[in-house]
Amino acid sequence: MGHSTTIWDQKSEFEVIKDWNNIDQVVLRSPRGASARVSLHGGQVISWRNERGEELLFTSSKAILKPPKAMRGGISIYFPQEQMWSIDNEPHPRRPTTAMENFEFRLRVSLAMDGNLTMLLICLSHVPVVSDISEVRIEGLETLDYLDNLCQRERFTEQGDAITFESEVDRVYLGSPNIVAVLDHEKKRTFVIRKEGLPDVVVWNPWERKSKTMVDFGDEEYKQTLCVDGALIERPVNLKPGEEWTAKLELSAIPSTYC
What we know:
By secondary structure, this protein is an all-beta fold. The chain contains one helix and 16 strands.
């Protein structure tokens, strides 16, 4: 622990370091300069930088950085979030033939034959950095039904061609496609979310009023962030002993000309 070593090939490295709470963090670096930082407290991704060193994930300047509370922002897994994780010394046997350019993280849930019936309600929360929330739109959720958490989870149908933001939003979009795009016009950048096994999407922005009531969130930070979560909410998965369930979420940042 605490030293650098190589994974998959001789150019892609990871390093295990201690944070200010003496919790292990895994720092991943690709040959071209991209990097990611993962806290073993909840397996939360707290940094993702592209090859130019630009931070792509939002973390609040007022985040409370002490367990059991998770850091506000990054990529969180709403399942074992308040538990400590460990590094798998025997990872998946697949070996890329080229240098590692993308980072992949896995959560494996096993239910033994003598285990109890388990119901899974899971959410993979992604909080990107955006230039200005008023310049952002989400494509791929139009015409879908959604549950509005600001209206006692009443069900509505999305009427817009794309989702834009002018006030607080807290919704669960149901039965969404496997690809959703977050377009940032000012940065000319698109976050593309590809998912499997996560049929729902949570969209959240606290806007000005709620931001001022959150102790771990800056008063003006709602302008630079947006939660878009792949989730399993409407129809939870029930696992019997010996059964398994798999989901996948892939996130990429590309020029907006893609859309």
